[in-house]
Hints:
With 263 residues, the protein is mainly beta. Helices cover 9% and strands 41% of the residues. It has helices spanning 4-19, 213-219; strands at 31-35, 40-43, 52-57, 60-61, 71-74, 82-90, 96-99, 103-106, 117-124, 129-134, 141-147, 155-156, 166-169, 177-185, 198-201, 208-212, 222-225, 228-231, 237-240, 246-253, 256-259. Strands 3, 4, 6, 7 and 8 form a 5-stranded antiparallel β-sheet that branches. The chain has a 4-stranded antiparallel β-sheet with strand order 12-11-14-15, with no helix packed on it. Strands 1-2-5 form a 3-stranded antiparallel β-sheet, with no helix packed on it.
Amino acid sequence: MKTGRQMTAVKRMIDRIASGHEGLPAPADLHATAVDDTTVSLSWSAVAHATGFNVYRDGAKATSSPVPVTSFTDAGRSPGRTYSYTVKAIDSAGAEGAASSPLNVTTTGTPTIPAPTNVKIDAVGATSVTLSWTAPADATGFDVFRAGTSGGPFAKVNPSLVTGTSFTDTGLTGSTTYFYVIKSEGAGGGLSAPSMEVSAKTEAPPTCFTATNFDHVVAGRAHDNFFFAEANGSNQVLGLDNVFIVTTLKQTGPNSYVIASCP
């Protein structure tokens, strides 16, 4: 059996439906009372006959249960982001009234952005390392940092913002291990935390020999073929086998050479 209070509430609901009542009016004067990097505090005017209020953020309910007062603090927000709020009053039957006018509030601070993922080494040479990664949403670019030891200290190596998802670090020393991390940059210029660290050891510098064609043949790096000098292994033609033509050969394997321009 329903109590007198329950019967009164039921009767009030029936009377509202019968009279075409449209519910409580929208709360007025919705405004922010305090804003920082991660919280937004709101306040609004009271609504007659309201028993509580629901606060909505970007169209989704931000309150786990109706708040019984005319203020609310929304915590756990992101720095430098704009949020849109509305408030609806609730009557004694639990019905929501009209929504307030929306209020846009931007938190303070620099927007945060995730670090790149899937950072990997794509190619290694004697003087270069090529890296690639997966970009997070909303990243406007990336900075690449290099260190000589694991954990740093790291120094930025890209002269300007990298707008793609790969980078080749050049001018390195052969047979040397380098360590890298990548940071995302957001629209506001803020950098993410560093990505996972990756490392690569550059290849050994090439062994090169610059000499006359005649001296290459004498040293066993080339051979004579009908008065022409040819590099061993590749058989590339250096030119006439004499002391007047100078050629640079790079060793590519045991008794194997190619014509090259070595650093």
